[in-house]
Amino acid sequence: SQQGEEDPQALSIQEGENATMNCSYKTSINNLQWYRQNSGRGLVHLILIRSNEREKHSGRLRVTLDTSKKSSSLLITASRAADTASYFCATAAPAGYQKVTFGTGTKLQVIP
Amino acid sequence: KAGVTQTPRYLIKTRGQQVTLSCSPISGHRSVSWYQQTPGQGLQFLFEYFSETQRNKGNFPGRFSGRQFSNSRSEMNVSTLELGDSALYLCASSSTSGGTGELFFGEGSRLTVL
Prior knowledge:
The complex is a heterodimer of chains A (112) and B (114). Chain A is mainly beta and 112 residues long.
């Protein structure tokens, strides 16, 4: 079963615009991660935010985490055609050996 | 540093056959996780191995099994293949276990069951 659910399922924007994707999850977490997947390929890790952090930046990426609402958002600024991919959030529960479960993904298309 | 290597990349099997997929993690990583990705179900967790021990298992039937060797390389096996087993199987390695750190993924093994 999926722990996270991304919204929107699909997003189409023009190059240079910002893209925002949201992730909602169901149970307490140790951390939340975002990954990118180009069509049919392996996933690439983008950023990890711990449950005691509220915001994190990496280059053009900005991730926020609101544990009270059990939600996170990923903002990609000044998007490029190369950002076209599916984006997934992934979570792991806090205690013991926990599996990392992935959300349903947001398919982003950046039009040149 | 070499990345995660999965073999074979593509394979075609028929119903009832069995298949073995291999994953070589990044050097020094002791955790290997396996995922099944399909258009309908998304990314589903299969199992995680750490230092040759299965740490976690997803909700898959017993036809799906795995193991990890002393050099951290891992294999997964699917017996009595069904059409619904057609999927991209992804392996990920990590330096930590239990979802505490970043996962490094291979390119996947795409299995087609006819």
